């Protein structure tokens, strides 16, 4: 009888593994198709929030820049002027109060931005989880500071009030965790940190909050996949997790992974190559050009204008990327007005021009061959054939706009998204290119303020 049940058990185990679609090796994991929703949404919001929002000085790397072998003298002097001599970074946690954190308010702002997904910092390099982690006793947002499950509260608001996909950022390594430092100093031959902290955290995050994006990162780009057990985690994520069919991941799972392995590629912060890539990629960038976290001492010239943001976005999606735009809340949990303004302005622009953005694909040309500051996307439509969208980042200086890349057909029509009338056009020499007559449009009739999108139907190339 015992042998009989043993055989059944072996058969069941074999059946389980034979049904596993992806195995823990890069060839198998990298073969997984990226879920369609990610490419179609084009735009997401990144939220960098944690204990570093308390000093809100310099950047979210405040702690290592304060306590490294070669400290930042501005930070050292800042601490000497404002805090007692024995003050530690851990002491900041009590002042991470989040008393104005209203997840419903955040959700409404993000919805207004036109974003399709959100990536929220669950744990940064300081090791402070924004949820009641079972593997971080008394050093998490439920035990000290906000005294609430920030991740859970925000996930609930996003899902109840919007159709935005909720995702999580998780920093695998930690600047000063003794277990991590021990493993790193052993050249990752010991595995105490990854077994007791990093991977248990990740499995808990996915099982509890069911994020549609699992965005991994490291503070030092060190550690092989064999140390992080990245391939084993991704195989579980794709085969067995609650989000196995819809989840997307990035490429920061080990020291050799960047721009090579995982889901979409980030390659580096603010990656924006300006040319079409062979893989799906993401431009993770910041509105505050100097920091991901909130800075109390920032100046207005540190923030991208909405025109800067749209220009970055147009070049990104034209080359096949998504844009993940970061904002950093205050320690009280407020998204400062300048961030909110940029998000709402960008959302206003997307309401007019979303047809040229959502669910489009790169065209044969990414930017125009004749006129500068024009980027392209395209889509196929039954009634209008190949439709090309030309993003004009500056208003034409002449009444005649020359587009060198499109080859028109007799059925081609030219219009501007958000504007009711068709534009007059004629083909360029030899049928190559389109010369568009730009009508005189009163400023109060323009569909948007910052950049304009021409729609070209029935394009031959």
UniProtKB/TrEMBL annotation:
Family the entry assigns: Belongs to the glycosyl hydrolase 29 family.
Any single GO BP term: glycoside catabolic process
Position of the signal peptide: 1-20
Organism: Mytilus edulis
Name of the protein described by the UniProt record: alpha-L-fucosidase
Gene Ontology terms for molecular function: alpha-L-fucosidase activity
Task performed by this protein: Alpha-L-fucosidase is responsible for hydrolyzing the alpha-1,6-linked fucose joined to the reducing-end N-acetylglucosamine of the carbohydrate moieties of glycoproteins.
GO cellular component: lysosome
Pfam name, any one: Fucosidase_C
InterPro entries from the UniProt entry: FUC_metazoa-typ (IPR016286), Fucosidase_C (IPR031919), GH (IPR017853), Glyco_hydro_29 (IPR000933), Glyco_hydro_29_CS (IPR018526), Glyco_hydro_29_N (IPR057739), Glyco_hydro_b (IPR013780)
Catalytic activity entry: a neolactoside IV(2)-alpha-Fuc-nLc4Cer(d18:1(4E)) + H2O = a neolactoside nLc4Cer(d18:1(4E)) + L-fucose; a neolactoside IV(2)-alpha-Fuc-nLc4Cer(d18:0) + H2O = a neolactoside nLc4Cer(d18:0) + L-fucose
Domain Alpha-L-fucosidase C-terminal: 366-457
């Amino acid at each position: 009888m015992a042998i009989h049940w043993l055989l059944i058990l072996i058969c069941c185990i074999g059946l389980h593994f034979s049904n596993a679609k992806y195995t823990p090796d890069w060839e198998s994991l990298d073969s997984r198709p990226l879920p369609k929703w990610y490419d179609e949404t084009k735009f997401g919001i990144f939220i960098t929030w944690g204990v570093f929002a308390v000093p809100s000085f310099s950047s979210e790397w405040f702690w290592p820049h304060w306590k490294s072998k070669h400290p930042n003298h501005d930070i050292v002097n800042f601490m000497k002027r404002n805090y007692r001599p024995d003050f530690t970074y851990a002491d900041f946690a009590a002042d991470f109060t989040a008393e104005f954190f209203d997840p419903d308010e955040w959700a409404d702002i993000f919805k207004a931005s036109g974003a399709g997904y959100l990536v929220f910092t669950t744990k940064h390099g300081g090791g402070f989880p924004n949820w009641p982690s079972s593997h971080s006793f008394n050093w998490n947002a439920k035990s000290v500071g906000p005294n609430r499950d920030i991740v859970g509260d925000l996930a609930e608001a996003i899902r109840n009030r919007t159709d935005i996909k909720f995702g999580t950022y998780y920093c695998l390594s930690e600047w000063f965790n003794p277990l991590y430092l021990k493993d790193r100093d052993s050249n990752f031959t010991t595995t105490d940190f990854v077994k007791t902290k990093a991977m248990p955290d990740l499995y808990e995050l996915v099982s509890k909050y069911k994020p549609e994006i699992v965005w991994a990162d490291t503070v030092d780009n060190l550690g092989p996949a064999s140390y992080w057990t990245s391939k084993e985690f991704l195989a579980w994520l794709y085969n067995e997790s609650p989000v196995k069919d819809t989840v997307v991941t990035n490429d920061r799972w080990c020291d050799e992974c960047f721009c090579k392995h995982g889901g979409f590629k980030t390659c580096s912060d603010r990656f924006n190559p300006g040319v079409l890539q062979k893989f799906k990629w993401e431009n993770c960038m910041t509105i505050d050009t100097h920091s991901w976290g909130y800075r109390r001492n920032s100046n207005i010239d540190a923030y991208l204008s909405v025109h800067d943001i749209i220009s970055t976005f147009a070049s990104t999606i034209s080359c096949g990327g998504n844009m993940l735009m970061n904002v950093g809340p205050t320690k009280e949990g407020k998204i400062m007005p300048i961030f909110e303004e940029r998000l709402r302005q960008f959302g206003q622009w997307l309401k007019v021009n979303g047809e040229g953005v959502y669910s489009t694909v790169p065209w044969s040309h990414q930017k125009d061959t004749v006129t500068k500051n024009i980027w392209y996307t395209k889509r196929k439509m039954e009634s209008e054939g190949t439709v090309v969208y030309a993003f004009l980042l500056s208003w034409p200086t002449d009444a005649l706009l020359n587009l060198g890349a499109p080859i028109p057909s007799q059925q081609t029509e030219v219009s501007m998204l958000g504007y009711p009338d068709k534009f007059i056009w004629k083909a360029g020499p030899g049928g190559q290119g389109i010369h568009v007559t730009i009508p005189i449009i009163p400023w109060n009739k323009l569909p948007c303020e910052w950049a304009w999108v021409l729609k070209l139907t029935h394009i031959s190339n």
